[in-house]
Design brief:
The complex is a heterotrimer of chains A (267), B (267) and C (335). With 267 residues, chain A is mainly α. Chain A has one domain. Helix content of chain A is 78%, strand content 0%. Chain A is built from eleven helices and no strands. Chain A is globular. Chain B is mainly α and 267 residues long. Chain B has one domain. Helix content of chain B is 71%, strand content 0%. Chain B is globular. Chain C folds into two domains: 243 residues, 3-Layer(aba) Sandwich (Rossmann fold); 67 residues, Lrp/AsnC effector binding domain/regulation of amino acid metabolism (RAM) domain (Alpha-Beta Plaits). In chain C, 37% of the residues lie in helices and 28% in strands. Chain C starts with a strand and ends in a 7-residue tail after the last helix. The model of chain C has no long low-confidence stretch (mean pLDDT 85). The chains are: A mainly alpha (267), B mainly alpha (267), C alpha/beta (335). Chains A and B meet through helix 2 and helix 8 of A and helix 2 and helix 10 of B.
Chain lengths: 267, 267, 335
Amino acid sequence: MNLKKYVALTKAGIMENLTYRLSTFIMIVGNMLYLLVAYFLWKAIYASSGTDYVNGMSFYDTLIYLTLATALFTFMEMYIVWEIGRNIQSGQIVRDLLIPMDYRRYLFWSYSGSLVTHFVFTFIPTFIVICIVTHGAIPFGWNLPLFMLSVVMAVSINNSIDFFVGGICLYTESIWGINIMKQVLVALFSGATIPIAFFPEPLKTITLHLPFQAIYNTPLNILLGKSGDMAETFTGLGFQLLWCVVMTLISRGFWNFSIRRVTVNGG
Amino acid sequence: MKKKNFRFYLRLYGKILAQDLKSKMSYRADFIISTIGMIATNIAGFVSFWILFRNFPTVNGWGYYEMLFLYGFSLVALTPVQCFFDNNWSLRMYVRDGSFIKYCFRPVNLFFYFQSEVFDIKGLGQLAFGIGTLVYSWTKLAIAVTPLAILKTILFLITASLVMVALQNAAAATCFWITNSFYVLDLVLRFKDYAKYPITIFTPVFRFVFTFVIPIAFIAYYPSLIILRPDDVGVLTWISPLVGGLLFYASYRFWMYGAMKYSGTGF
Amino acid sequence: MEPVLQMKHITKEFKVLNRREGVKGTLKDLFSRDYKILRAVDDISMDISRGEIVGYLGPNGAGKSTTIKMMTGVLEPTSGEILVGGNVPYKHRTKNAQEIGVVFGQRSQLWWSLPLIESFKILKDIYQIETKDYNDMLELYASLVNMDEIIKKPVRQMSLGQRTLSDILAAFLHNPKMVFLDEPTIGLDVSMKARIRTLIHALNKEKQTTVILTTHDMGDVDALCRRIVIIDHGKMLYDNDIEHLKQFFGAYRTLKLRPFGDRSDAEEKIKATVTDASVSSDDDWISVLVDESKTGVMKVLGQIQEIVKIKDMQLEEISTEEVIKKIYEGGPITQ
């Protein structure tokens, strides 16, 4: 694997992301505004509930969970399915497949610049602000490197899901419909909109057996130290790794199969 | 050249719409999958709402059905912006690659011509869902159904729609200056989600901001007071139709001003 | 003839950011206030009369699009006066739009998913075309091109050629005084190019429509334009008949050769030997442009014969392509 060309793609992506400078400032300021609002909203919601803990989640837990889930979403969601969809509709995909590079890798690395930019400009500021605001509700210890490891796997799982859905798009003309269903499912079952701890019982059990929760719920629980002892943390990571491998295999297999079909049929 | 009045534009829009629908229906699979996606989106939205209020039965003195009313109200109020002004989301792409210019060559109102290009039929599902929610919570709250109450509801729904359209126009139009307006639109989209919470849960500073700076309180809260808390209606509710109209007009002028100063990329 | 378009001392300036290179440079640019003024169009004046087809030429980035944008009322000039059919375009954009037709850029201006005829019907409403005029126009179109193959087809399913054809038809539909065509034949095959040119020519003749054509294809210029205007770096380089232009290069002859054996190899050899003429080649021929005021054609041919075996040869007047190239490169212009 020639690392240089991937770095080149990432660099180009970063530059493209920063070209429109006012937009970069708005990204940062907008994110801060959002944090402020989320803070007051949840403070009020907790204040009116009368208890400090709801489903084992304190106000700070919920705040950290949701704001960091949003920040993770901002940098992980690369809108790759939209890109695949556009390329399919415009016929560009036939040309893209001729690039001397695996198409999946090519797309991922083209978008990795955006990933890096958003990590630096939204995730890190969010993390710092939240650390300060919650007065050390996030423990600093082994959970941090494990959280990063978990995020890397989450990116991989998310990417696999994207390409699985992208594969479906090769068969249907309906890019919007497929994509919106994917977004809705991921947003709800990954814990990006509501902490999974809040889910009622049967739904919670189902959710925990789906790959989606490994994207946001697992890393965030590791970060918050919610899983209690180390054993549980490693079980979480283990399951994530399992999903990582399974989803990669399924997604890769399905994509390659579908691409071959499309190429045979002449697109 | 005959004068192009309101009737001219209405008839023109009708014709474009009819043609557009006809061509959309001809892609059967896409139409069906999109419809399913649209229903899934609404169900997921409702499930999130439901999970949240299972854990927090009241928010700042607002009960479940009152919150449901606000939720339904904002769904209906958001339909026009989704159906008629969805092309705003593509504006930044046309501006970036310079193809926005193609809209400038026709002897009709630029704003109208641009928005008329896209009619997003998917918003209709949201409308149905919103009306259902509204009617359901209305009966549960045992509010008397009088012609006046219905008239008021409709008037204030229109008001709320105008506010939302205005916010989105203004957000989209920022791309004429900053080229990439995605983060501004995204911010408005996020704040739009807060429209369904009673403004009183926020601190006075945010109450002020959400009333006079980013006026999302006019999307659901102020207008809904007239039905939910008829004894508690303040002057801000009564002037909200006026505010809606003014905001819409201001956003239209802002959009047009941006379009006029826009010079296209490259020369 | 009444002028349809008048431009007097038009200038357009833009403020642009000086950008730096690399990721570091991009980060620095976030805070930069380093702007420069770019003069895209610099003191251009011209009058264009009814029924003319004018070739508006210049290398990429010369200021052609900016000029067209000012003519169509999209841009306001920094200084100078401009009138299109008596209107000031940027002040009365919609009124001006009623009088002009535009095909600009690669993206179709028609409704992407609608059949062409439905697009036409909507345009009929937008431009408030009388039913009789509309029907006459469609009849005229039917006599010029095969409408059956495109009229019921949605634009998104059309080939590039059909799409261009449709866009041009749509631009003439409301019988405008003036039509702007930007690179109408780019990317098309030879037969489609010819069909497009014939169509433009016929519509210009039939309706006395003024056409302003920007192109890099000299085939378009030869087939359609009597008058050409050339600009570069925003400045007007030339505005006159094409024949008039060629006279300046009367002393130039193009010697066209076809060698035995490998063409590019022969071209290299000729380039090395013949130093006082410019050598270029296309698919069929090697062209040697000879300035007869400096050296003789026969002398050059003699030189070449000594190093390359010639299969076939032709002697031509300087081609439009080469004239334009000479001007872009800063050749002798004395108007």
